[in-house]
Design brief:
heterodimer; A: alpha/beta; Rossmann fold; 2 domains; 9 helices; about 10% strand; elongated; B: alpha+beta; Beta Polymerase, domain 2; Cytochrome-c3 Hydrogenase, chain B; 18 helices; about 15% strand
């Protein structure tokens, strides 16, 4: 067919083709936009709700996750995002590479001393309101590595955690359940309280001047941020 | 140094006997300290370079497989495990004792580049100083760490301070050269393209990478300490799953199983070996699919089609592995002397399911080739980027697909046979490209070879007589290998040579458990392959090395 001539069906009639629409609507009045909910409201086109509740409902159904792979659990986390389990079905499947764009941080793995300050920094960079799902035993207690000299005994030592998903690693279904539970909490306006954690970022100069601090005084600047691990007090 | 080809020809013909080794090392050897796997020679700490150069150039031992550092009551010891790329069954251990008060040993870095990172690790964890080391920093633990955790007098309860070093301005003039206006860039530790928590300190000149320094240790989970605290029989086996956690669990478990079985002299029934071989190759397929998917993710960016395709196929493999082992990722399926249980009932169903997967595989590979390797943009991105020359690869101790894509014909499944591999028909894939493209192709072809192996294993399992399905050898409830037995054994993991060194002290727990991680070595070559390339090629090279941080940091 050469393109300089109009196609036959358009040539014959200039009326819009409505075959598809008619097939979908069927006979009778157009009720495509109706739903059970719409029927329940009756004639009124308004919903009365509290703004906060509305916001929480929206928040719970549109969560941007932080793309944050730490250890073994991140493989199962990727599987949860990927084709079979598809977390996106639950309104929570858009991984963002930048913490500035993320609402939810899934902590998928063991946190060790060197990574603790970095994780705290990433958490701090996320905008409020923010939520944390701890994935796997390591984020609960250190898991199988709990006795390690270098392992932080759970994510809750550093950041507040809303939902703990146990398992080593949890199955994707378990993570989806955890995320669904988090959505439920968000809809109800619940978050875990932000309290002072055992391990916080602080300036080196503010640490009590004990033996260790004096030893390190030459290497670390007064203003440098540090995290001090008191392993003896760990659970 | 002569060219690779000449060296290869030299080596394949030369078998160095123990007498020749003794003559080669001569009176530099203070005494013998033989290991189960290799003859061992004790030398003085100031003769390290001398001996290693001789072993490398005259003995042909061109592969520094591993460096184990450990502390005894009365001394420190560094053990250099040397092998040959041409024949890894030829091994020699060089043992270097140093005093407790002044643990200083000569650095082996001039002879083998890979000793650089190894000696940094030995200093970090055990506390031996290496004289003449070009870069004596900690590698796994933070710079401000106090003490050496695997040394005898370490107090785990003492507090530690870890800094969050900030760069006041990420764009600052490079201090190496006043003339140039280079830019410093942190990639990681939280970055989607670093496959975990790797931190690459990069200096850029425009878009060209001038200098990189991989900073590892953000996932240092004390795996060696954990294994030293566990009993041989059951408590160690779960940990190998978590080294290379990209579904390569069975391959890792095999490394421990092989080492411990050699140590305790356990024979594994043939039937169990076939199940092991099949399971391990399924793991290799899953692992290579992930490598392919994430590599494409790095090259194309964003969550894309290829990534989803590869995860679709991984799900199938994981389903099969779940049927076999009961777990999707952390299998804990091998036992010393065999496997935990037989194939799931009904057997026919399992075998049929696995066969279905194998039957569909060729079509899937074609699909990948159409999608990925046939793609012109992909080829432009990958050809001649991240070039790793074979002699450099050997110097850095690279193994696995990374080495094989540089033309090094080295595969422990064939060269140092274990399991059931030597009775099966399959080929070792090598490619001469040396670049990112070759590494991707190498992995994809290895998937096909693994499928061949699985197919043959299924045939064998199907026809195996029902009354002869022995899945476990008789192993004592408590294993106590003879004191002071030392063994270093390696298997071909998904990423390369995964080795384990164990020293027993007569108890039911190892006195020293050292892991030789292939990713650790492959990653150490990152500087060589990406300096001078553009920064997007650095990301591609990193992806094609296919590192897993759990195994790099251990």
């Amino acid at each position: 067919m050469s393109s300089d001539k109009p196609r036959q069906d358009i040539y014959d009639s200039t009326a819009p083709s409505t075959d598809t629409r008619e097939a979908r609507m069927g006979a009778g009045p157009d009720d495509r936009f109706n739903s059970k909910l719409r029927e329940a409201f009756g004639a009124s086109p308004f919903i009365l709700t509290k703004f906060d509740q509305f916001m929480n409902w929206v928040r719970g159904n549109s969560m941007f996750m932080l793309q944050f792979g730490i250890a073994c659990c991140s493989i199962e986390m990727i599987h949860t995002y990927a084709i079979k389990h598809d977390l996106d079905r639950f309104g929570a499947g858009v991984p963002r590479a930048s913490p500035r764009q993320a609402d939810v941080m899934i902590v998928p793995g063991t946190i060790v001393s060197k990574f603790g300050p970095r994780m705290k920094r990433v958490y701090d960079q996320m905008p409020e309101p923010k939520f944390v799902v701890g994935m796997g035993s390591c984020t609960i207690s250190g898991g199988p590595f709990q006795e390690g000299y270098n392992v932080v005994k759970g994510a809750e030592e550093i950041i507040p955690v809303d939902i703990h998903v146990p398992g080593c690693p949890p199955r994707p279904e378990a993570l989806i359940y955890g995320v669904a539970k988090l959505q439920e909490r968000i809809r109800n306006g619940e978050t875990s309280p932000v309290v002072v954690k055992p391990y916080e970022l602080e300036q080196f100069g503010d640490l009590p001047k004990d033996e260790l601090v004096q030893k390190l005084a030459d290497d670390i600047d007064e203003e440098d941020l540090v995290m001090r691990y008191n392993w003896a007090d760990s659970p | 140094m002569s060219t690779e080809l000449e060296r290869d020809q030299q080596e394949t013909g030369v078998e160095v006997t123990e007498d020749e080794l003794e003559a080669l090392i001569g009176d530099r050897a203070l005494r013998r300290d033989d290991h189960l796997n290799a003859p061992g020679f004790v030398i003085r700490p100031d003769a390290v370079q001398d001996v290693l150069f001789d072993l490398r150039d005259e003995g042909g031992f061109d592969h520094l497989s591993c460096l184990t550092a450990q502390q005894y009551e009365d001394r420190y010891e560094s053990i250099y495990h040397l092998k040959k790329y041409a024949d890894p069954t030829q091994e020699v251990s060089v043992v270097v004792p140093t005093s407790v008060d002044d643990p200083v040993s000569q650095s082996a870095e001039p002879a083998f580049r890979t000793a650089d990172w190894h000696e940094r690790e030995a200093f970090d964890l055990v506390g031996i100083d290496y004289e003449g080391h070009p870069d004596p920093r900690r590698i796994l633990l933070p710079e401000t760490w106090q003490g050496h955790p695997l040394s005898k007098d370490y107090d785990q309860e003492q507090p530690q301070v870890v800094t969050l070093a900030e760069h006041a301005n990420p764009i600052q003039p490079d201090h190496h050269d006043e003339e140039s206006d280079t830019m410093f860039l942190n990639i990681g530790p939280h970055h989607p393209a670093t496959h975990g928590v790797l931190h690459v300190k990069t200096v850029l000149d425009g878009e060209t990478v001038v200098d990189i320094d991989p900073d590892v240790g953000y996932l240092h989970r004390c795996e060696e300490q954990m294994c030293q605290q566990g009993t041989y029989r059951h408590q160690i086996m779960p940990y190998p799953d978590r080294w290379d956690y990209v579904s390569a669990g069975l391959l890792n478990e095999w490394a421990y199983a092989r080492t411990a079985e050699d140590l305790a002299d356990i024979e594994v029934p043939e039937y169990a070996q076939i199940i092991r071989t099949m399971g391990a190759e399924l793991c290799r397929i899953a692992s290579h699919f992930l490598a392919l998917g994430t590599f494409c993710l790095d090259v194309y960016g964003d969550f894309n089609a290829v990534f989803q395709y590869s995860f679709r196929d991984r799900e199938v493999v994981q389903d099969i592995l779940e049927d076999l082992t009961g777990q999707r990722l952390m299998f804990n399926y091998f036992r010393l002397g065999g496997v935990a249980w037989d194939l799931p009932e009904p057997r026919d169903e399992f075998i049929e399911k696995t066969r279905d997967f194998l039957d569909e595989l060729p079509a899937k590979i074609t699909e990948y080739n159409n999608l990925v390797t046939g793609n012109e943009i992909f080829q432009v991105r990958c050809n001649d980027t991240g070039v790793l020359q074979p002699d450099v690869a050997k110097d850095y101790g690279c193994t696995g697909p990374v080495a094989r894509a540089s033309g090094i014909d080295y595969d422990l499944r064939r060269d140092d046979p274990y399991g059931y591999y030597e009775n099966l028909e399959w080929d070792v894939i090598t490619r001469q490209g040396c670049d990112n493209y070759a590494r991707v192709l190498c992995r994809m072809e290895e998937v096909e070879e693994s499928a061949k192996i699985i197919d043959q294993c299924l045939d064998l399992l199907e026809d195996w007589p029902e009354d002869d399905r022995e899945i476990q050898a008789n192993v004592p409830r408590t294993l106590k290998p003879d004191p002071d037995t030392e063994v270093y054994r390696a298997v071909e993991g998904a990423k390369g040579e995964l080795g384990i060194y164990i020293r027993s002290d007569g108890t039911d727990k190892p006195a020293r458990f050292k892991i030789r991680s292939p990713c650790f070595h492959n990653l150490s070559a990152l500087g060589e392959i990406s300096e001078g390339d553009f920064i997007p090629d650095l990301i591609a090279s990193l992806g094609s090395l296919d590192i897993v941080l759990g195994e790099v940091d251990r």
